[in-house]
Each structure stands twice: as C-alpha cells, then as structure tokens.
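Morning. Coffee machine broken again, so started the prediction first thing and wrote up yesterday's gels while waiting. Chain of 382 residues, entered below exactly as on the submission form.
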Amino acid sequence: MDRVSHLTVVKVGGSLLGGAEDLHRAAAALAERRRDGGLLLVVASALQGVTDLLDLAARRSGRPEELAPILDRLRSRHLELASGPALARVHEVLAELEALVGSLPAGETVPDGTYARLLSFGERLSVILLANALQGAGQDAQAVASEEIGLRAEGPPRSGCCDIAGSAEGLERMRRQLRDRVLVLTGFYGVDPGGKVVLFGRGGSDNTACAVAAGLDADRLELWKDVPGFMSADPREVRGARVIDRISFDEVAQMGAYGSKVVNHGCLAPLRGRDTRIVISTIPEASSGSGTLLVERLQRDSTRVVALASRRNNGSPALVAAVGDGIAGNPEIRERMLACLAAAGVRSDRVAQPSGRSGLSCTVHPDDLSPALSGLHEAFFS
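Came back before lunch.
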C-alpha cells in the first residue's frame, strides 16, 4: 500500500468524552489538527462509563426490572448529546441495542459472541456523536463502524486482535475517503470473516489506532488520554511527578507489566519497524505539540531510570518498580534503589527482581508505597 501523504491518526479516549463540553473540546482540537493540513483519521472510544454500563447490562441479562434503568441511562446519555441528522442515527442504534438486550436469556451466562456484540455499541454510538461535533466545528466528517469498512479481526470474541493484512481492502477504502473528509472510526473491535464482532480487550481502542496507523503507514499517531503523557511516577502517589519527554517501546511494555494502564498492552507491536511518529498526550498538550514521544529504540548517553511504576494489591504487599532500558543488569542502580528504600525506613523484601532488560522491582508494605515512591523519585529524578 502506498503511503498516505501527511496522514495523522488520532485516538480519542473515552475519559475525554464525558459530555457535551468534552465533545466540543475534542472536536475543536481535531478541527485544528485538520486545519494544520494533511489527512485525518479519528479513532473513538465509547463515552466515559458506557462500556461499564453495557457490561452491567450483560450481567443483568433476563431481568427486566434491573435492565430498564441501565437502558434508560444509556439512552439519556446519548440522546442528550445528539442533534440534527445524528439524532435519527442514534435512535436507530439504540433501538438495535435495546432489541439485543431484550433477547438476552434469563439466568444464563451471555455467550461470548453476544457479549462482544453488546459491548461494541458504545463505540458505534460515540462515533456518531463525535462526527456530528466535528461537523459543528466546520469539518466534513463521517462516522464509520468497523463492520462497515471491513476492519478484520481474529481470535476469541472477548480478546482478539486486528488482522491488518485481512483489513487491506477496508483500509484502502478508508484511504480513498480520507482525501475528501475526516473519518471517525469505531475503536475497540473488529469483525471476523463471518461478520461477528471481536473485541480487542478493555482499552482496545489503542489497538485499533495502532493497527490502522500501521496499515495506512500514517505519518503520525496521537493517543489522546486523560493524562498529559507518561509520568515519571504516579502523580496520585508522588508530588512533583512530571511528564517524560521520550520513552522506548520496551520501556512502555515494562511499565504495562508493572501495572501502568496508559496504553493497552501490546498495542504498539504493529508499529515496530516503522517511522510513524507516536505521541501520547491529553487534548491541550496535543494542540501545543507536547506530551510523551514513543520511540521504538532510544540511544541515551547512560543507563538510567526513566520512570517509576507501582501497583497496589488489595492489602497484600504492594509493588514498586523502576523502569529504564538496560537497568535490569546494572548493579549500581539496583543497590541505589535498595539503599534508598532502607534509608526511608520502608518495609520491603530488600530484593530487586529484574524483569527483561528494562525493569527492577520489589515488594513493599502497602502503607509504605507512597513514601517508597517519593524517596525513589527524589533519588533518581532530583
């Protein structure tokens, strides 16, 4: 496939799509991207909280008295944001959703294929609303569902992946349409050769964005989140945590292994070996060009800690970890990490376990996680 000239793919996370003001803000930023020149493909997640509501509907299957308020919330969330031609389309999709929910059997586990189809409605509704908001911002925009464009997927219904080679025909259609308008594509899912929905896992809109950026050989991929980028530590735990300007793919993977949810696990795999510029930011930073740049391989002057990761474990010992290419085999960094924890009086296992090339971790008492992170942040980032 020939390279699409100056194509930017932007994924808009659901946490940025809470209500009318959020939609207008996202649309204004996307319109600004379009005015910068080049082509624009938007990948949208469901509105904030909608996927959880759909999951709840699946778990309340066959109980009309419990399903009714869930459907009412879903209906009101979307209808209050719809206007013009989008209103009729939202009504149509909601009617299809309600018919599916009404057919769910009582007292039985929802089959995986039905569950996947049910959860896909969040994105099918959100793209209509975001495309409508883009039109209000002066852009010719069209909502596109994965099944309409032929975005192929493979694997089990709840946890599959995008089939980029199988999607070639659909990607070619999108490429032609992008020359005339902005397309707003459903994230989170694709369809198998039989047309059945396959989800990419929670947070799977990242997977959609990375896959279509790879398949279209996009110049730039922006993942818009509710955080300004990858942080040097969890800002809820460490005052003074700051945005990392650059991070490698391996470091991103290690952060994910230690519990970071900034990007969906494994989503960057299709972009290895490509020169697509990848940036994670939130909307204001995306407009100004800041955020965190993701690079497959980074050349640094020295081996160093790039970020701290942490994970609480429901009352069990918490995990605290340091991430940086090459630090797993660096005894100086390992000893410095353990000495810092000891100096802070942190109750830990006093063993720094390596992970791959890029990680060192140990467990600490749950009450000591914040002081452990603060001490390590002071030691490695001051």
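The first helix runs from residue 20 to 35. Going to sketch it on the whiteboard this afternoon.
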